[in-house]
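Researcher: Structure prediction, please.
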Amino acid sequence: MGTTHLEPTAHVARRMFELLEPICLVTFLADECNEEMAALGHRGYWDGYFASRAAPLGRVPAHVVHAAFYNFADGEVARHIPRAWETIPPAASVAARERGSAASLRRILGDELVGSPGLARAADLTTKAATSAPTEGRMMYAGMRTLDVPGDPVARLWHSATMLREHRGDGHIAALLGARIGGTEAHVLSALDQGIHPAESFGRIHHLPEERLAAVMDGLRARGLIDSDGRFTDTGRATKQRIEALTDDLATPPYDALSPAELDELITELQPITAALKATDSR
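Model: Predicted structure follows.
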């Protein structure tokens, strides 16, 4: 008997996030996806990012994508949507994202892991979990559920891991909303949690106008979440921890589809895959 299923369910969700996130990150960090997007005609990284990630929602306007993604500053989405879809159909961007991501995984993992029974089994079990959760209140996850699951094991593993990532992301947004933490505020809390100070230097927000960042920091101070030096207060750290705990709790439903033995097996099969990806920072 394994030990995974003896832990609280939220711990299972956190462990699965740690194992699956490096698989998803090749989309954003490795070269192949960017090259596929450029070959389609997207003008830059963010054109391809918004065009491919938002495409499962359908041809919705920018303000809907902004709402679904949650943590981008006002106006950032509108610089790319719907223009990025005007000459490149959304389905083409989705396909390019899948091709590039799978190619990155094949390169990083190498022939032995790619062709192993363990990877194929991990893909099957990840897909079983990813296609089993309720979609209510899960906008991005529901959108991805409309896409066909690839037949190729490597592409299927990436696709299903990304479905689970979007499922978790939808729950994280719900947790942030419940704590009355906006998108830019979430980046500040994340930066501080990572030990980045000043938080305004964090890569996801450092480009924002100074007055916008100052207003966000002032608001967090007024709520007692950060101190005069821009660091966590005890209340702020506790708030961040509650958000993360709730995110883990809300991320558990997909794994209810797996038996304890299947969950243990999935973790075992994912470990060498994750280790290989982490060794290259998913690049």
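Model: Residues 153-178 form the longest helix (26 residues).
Researcher: Thanks, that helps.
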